[in-house]
Amino acid sequence: MLKTRLGKDLLRNKWLYVMILPVVIYYVLFHYVPLYGTIIAFKQFVPAKGILGSDWVGLKHFEDFFSSIYFFRVIKNTVLLSFFNLLLGFPAPIILALLLNELKSPIFRRITQTITYMPHFITLVVVAGIIRYFTLSDGLLNDVIAFFGGERISFLQQPESFRPIYIISEIWQQIGWGTIIYLAAITGIDQQQYEAAKMDGANKLQQIRHVTLPGILPTIMIMLILSLGNIMNVGFEKIILLYSASIYETADVISTYVYRKGILEFSYSYSAAVGLLNSVINFTILLLANSFSKRASKNSLW
Amino acid sequence: MKSFSKSKIHQSVVVLLSLTLLSAGCSNSANSNNESASTAPSGETPAAEFSYPITGGPELTFMNEQLGGTPEHMPIDDEYEKRTGITIKHLGGTPMTDQKFSLLLASGELPDIFLNTWLQYPGGPDKAVEQGYILKLNDLIDQYAPNLKKSLQEHPEIDKMIKTDDGTYYAFPFIRSEAGRVYGGPIIRKDWLDELKLDIPETIDEWHTVLTAFKEKNNADAPATFRTMFLGERTGGFAGAFGVMGNFYINDGKVVYGYLEPGYKEYLKTMNQWYKEGLIDKDFASIDAATVDKKMTSKVSGATIGWQFYIEKYNSAAQETDPDANFVAAPYPGAAKGQLPEFGQLDNAYAGTSSAAISSTTKNVEAAMRWLDYAYSKEGSMLNTFGVGGTTYTLENDKPVYTDLVVKNPEGLGSDQVMMKYSHGTNFPMIQQDNNLPAKYPQTTKAIDIWKKTNHESHLLPPVTPTADEADEMSSIMNDINSLVKEAELKIILGTESVDNYDEYVQQMKDMGIERVLEIQQAAYERYMKR
C-alpha cells in the first residue's frame, strides 16, 4: 500500500488528512447515512414497525400528491414566490455592494454595512412578529396610509399583498449579509485595471461596468447557480408564522401544505415523498443552471 | 500522541466495552421485568387486599397535552405522592396535533403515563393499541383499577363513551361534570350597554344594533373581535342562530356536516355584511389571543366570543384603568326573540381530552394503574375537587367549606389560582365534580347558565370510533376539506370572494368525497348507539 501514489501522499500529508477527517465523518454521518431513510417515501411508514419493517406501497404517495386539488396551487405558489424572490432579491446585494464600494469615508462605509447586515441576526419569529404588528389595520403601516388619506387594509388577510410583504421583508433581512461576499470579491480586483481605465478616460459608471462587474462575475455566477438550486425551498418557517387560511391562495407553498398534512395525519411517508420530489426538482434545476453557465460564461461549480 | 501508551488505550477500550455491556445488560433485565409485568402475574396482591400507598416507592414518567415545558411542582403533586406512594416525574407535554407528538412516537421513548386526546389518534385509539404504543386496559382494569371499574358499573353512559366499538378500553377518561361541559360563549361590555340604554342582545338583529351603536357612539374601532376558532368551529358563535355550526353534528338521528347546510350560506352572508360595515375586527383572520385581550381591555372592542375565564381576565385588567368596566356573558343569539339557537358550545361529558393511556414501554404497569385509579376513588375525588383537607377546606356537617386561604387569599390570588395549586380541577383523568368555587367576579359564575341556553344537546355527536381503515380514509379526505372550508369561510366574510360562490365550494366538497365521510360517520354513530 505504501508503494502507491496515494499511500505516499497519505504518508507525506498525514496531518492534512487528519484535519479533514472530522469534516468527512460529519458529512457521512449526517448527510449520507440518513439518505437510506428516504425509502420511506415508497413505504407506508409506521414508527412501531421501523423503517425496514414497514410495507412497500410503490408510488402511492406521489400519486396522492399529484391528485390533490391543491397540487397545482402549491406548486404555482412555490415557484412564483421563489422566482420573484430571486429576481428581486438576488441583484439587491450586488447593487448595494457596488454602492458601498464607491463610498469614500471608511467609517461611514463600515457603519452602513453594519446597519444593513444587522437584521440578518434577528430571529425569524421576531421578524414575523414585527411584520404582523406593522401590517395590522391599526398598525404602523396603516397609520401612515391613513395619514395620507388612504384606506386602512389588513394586509396579512389580502392574498395579493402576501408576496410583496414576503419579498420586501426578505430583502430587508438578507441584503447586507449578501454584500459581504461581493465586497470580498471586489477587493480582489487588481487596482491597476482601474488605473488603466482612468487613463483611457472612463468615468465612475464606466469603471463599474467594465472593471468591477467583470471582476466579480465569476462570484455572481456561482452564487446564482447555488440559489437556483434552492428555488423550491422557500422560507417555510416564515410563511408558517405569517399565513392564515384567508391567504392560502397565495401563501400556501409545498412545504407548508405538507406540514399541515403531515401533522394532521402523521404521514411521514407522504412528507418524505414530497420532500424527495422537491430535491429532485432542485437538483435538476441546479444541473441545468450549471451546464448553461458553463457554456455561456465559462464559470461553473464543476 | 506519544504520551498515550498502548496499554492505556487498551485499558480505556476495555472500560468502554464493559460499560456498553453493562448498559445492555441493564436494558435487558428491564425488558424481562417489563414482560413479567404485562403478562398477568400470579401471586400479585389481589385487588381487594390492596391499599394505598403502594410499597417500594416506584417512580413514573408523565406527560400531558399542554405545550410549554415542564409545569411547576405544586402542593397537589406532593399530596398525591404522599397518598399513593408513587413519585411522578413530569416531562412536559405535547398535543397530538403538534409535530413533537409524531417525533415522540418515532423516538419510542414514551412516558409511562400519557395524557392526550386518544380519540383523535389517526386511525382511532384502536390503532394506537394495535401499533403497540399504548396498552389495552381491559384486563388491567379488572386487576388493578377497582375504583374506575366501580364507577363504570355505576355509570353505564360513561362506560359506553370511553370504550371503542369492540369494547377496548384504552385510557383513564377525563369525564366533565354537567357544569364543566359548557365553558365558552359571547362576552359583552355591560357598562357600554347601560350607557346606551340597550339590553343585552339576544337575537342576530339585536346584536347588529348593539355593535353598530358601539361603533358609532363608543368609537370602538372593532366592535366585535375574536379569533377564527370561535366562529362556528369551537363554539357555534353567531352561526347557531342560523341553525348551523361548522362541524359534524346530529340532525334527527342523521350525521350532517354543517358547512353543507343551506343555513351556512345565510350565516356567511350576514357575517360578510357585518364585516363590510366594520362591526367585526378588520384583522380577525390573522390575530392572536394577546391582540384580542388588548383590544377588549382598551376600548377598541366591546364584544367577543371566548372562554369563561376571559370574563375574569378582562374585568380585572380593564378595571385598573376604567373602574366602570363590566364584562358579562351574553346568551348565544337566536334567530328571533325567545327562540333558542340550535348551537352554542357544549362538550361531550367525555370529549376525549386529557385521557391517560399507559404506554406499552412502561416498566411498572401496576404502579401506573394504581396512580391513575386513585382519582376515581372517593378520597381521590375529594382531593381533586376540593383540594387538601385542612388546608383548602374544612368539613362542616360533612360538607366541605373553603378556608380563607382560598376565599380571602393573603397574597390576593383568585380562588381559582389557589385551587390550581392544591387540586386537579380540570384536564385530568377523573370524573369531575362541581367544586362550587366562588369566583372573584359574580359575572363569571353566572356565565355558564347564560351560555347553556341552546338546543346543542340534541345535536351533539357522541365520541364515536370509526374503524382504523375508515379513520384513515376519513382523515385523508377531511384534511383537504378542512383547509377548504376554513379558506372559503374567511374569504367570504372578508369579502375577497362573493358569497354566491359558496355553492361551488359545496360542490367541491362533494367532489372531494364529503359524502363518503358522512357515510363513515353515520355508520360509526349507529354502531355507537348499539353499544
Map the helices and strands.
The complex is a heterodimer of chains A (302) and B (531).
Chain A: H1 5-12, H2 14-32, E1 43-44, H3 50-53, E2 55-56, H4 60-67, H5 71-89, H6 91-102, H7 106-117, H8 124-135, H9 140-147, H10 159-187, H11 191-199, H12 204-228, H13 236-242, H14 248-251, H15 254-265, H16 268-297
Antiparallel strand pairs in A: 1-2
Helix pairs in contact in A: 4-16, 5-10, 6-10, 7-10, 8-13, 10-12, 11-12, 12-16, 15-16
Chain B: H1 6-38, E1 59-64, H2 75-84, E2 87-93, H3 99-107, E3 113-116, H4 124-130, H5 138-144, H6 146-154, H7 156-162, E4 184-189, H8 190-196, H9 204-217, E5 248-251, E6 254-257, H10 262-276, H11 289-297, E7 303-307, H12 308-321, E8 327-329, E9 355-358, H13 365-373, H14 378-386, E10 393-396, E11 399-402, H15 404-407, H16 415-422, H17 442-451, H18 468-494, H19 502-512, H20 514-530
Parallel strand pairs in B: 1-2, 1-3
Antiparallel strand pairs in B: 3-9, 4-7, 4-8, 5-6, 10-11
Membrane topology (chain A): Multi-pass membrane protein
InterPro entries (chain A): MetI-like, MetI-like_sf, UgpAE/MalFG_permease
Transmembrane segments (chain A): 15-33, 80-103, 115-134, 171-190, 211-232, 268-289
